[in-house]
Please model this.
Amino acid sequence: QSVLTQPPSVSAAPGQKVTISCSGSSSNIGNNYVSWYQHLPGTAPKLLIYDNNKRPSGIPDRFSGSKSGTSATLDITGLQTGDEADYYCGTWDSSLSAGVFGGGTKLTVL
Amino acid sequence: EVQLVESGGGVERPGGSLRLSCAASGFTFDNYAMSWVRQAPGKGLEWVSIIYWNGGSTRYADSVKGRFTISRDNAKNSLYLQMNSLRAEDTAFYYCARVPPGDYSYYYMDVWGKGTTVTVSS
Model:
């Protein structure tokens, strides 16, 4: 069972918007910054968002992140079939003294 | 080009040992902390370990503490994961990842390797 909680799956049509949630606690999301990763199994995960809402160079502004209290959200607008992947939130857990991930959310673009 | 390339994976029996390596290129290796992350078949990403730039500070997931040891050789731009007392549940794809400078509250991984497979089976 993951420390951070994500919905197992989300889906939406091409061009639409989807929101992926990530819920934690005061020892992780509540007091640390959140990052988001896109992953196709067997390939290198890709950083999408860091420091709650910053995008690395090369990540389109269709991807955005936010945080409120002990929860974080990844929004993806203008969905494309190429966005189909697993998405993970991550942060540091100060009580565990360890990095933690959510269980992952599989995005299907219908 | 910034690159991380893992090697050393394979098949090992329960109780055995493996040493993973991660070769870094395209950046100043000793400016960064480094982490290992794994993904078991059909499961999500699981954080394994972190080592800071000079090797002086390390942390481990409870699932590997006491069995795995992370280390680095800055002269060789290389990261390692010594895995002892292997269990079936250690079977996974193992990724190394770069961690930008900053304290723990800003923790994230900005560059990842393509991974190496570890299978623990009798």
In short: Chain A has a mean pLDDT of 96. Chain A touches chain B at residues 2, 31-33, 35, 37, 39, 41-47, 50-51, 56, 86, 88, 90-92, 94, 96-104 (CB under 8 Å). Chain A has no helices and nine strands.
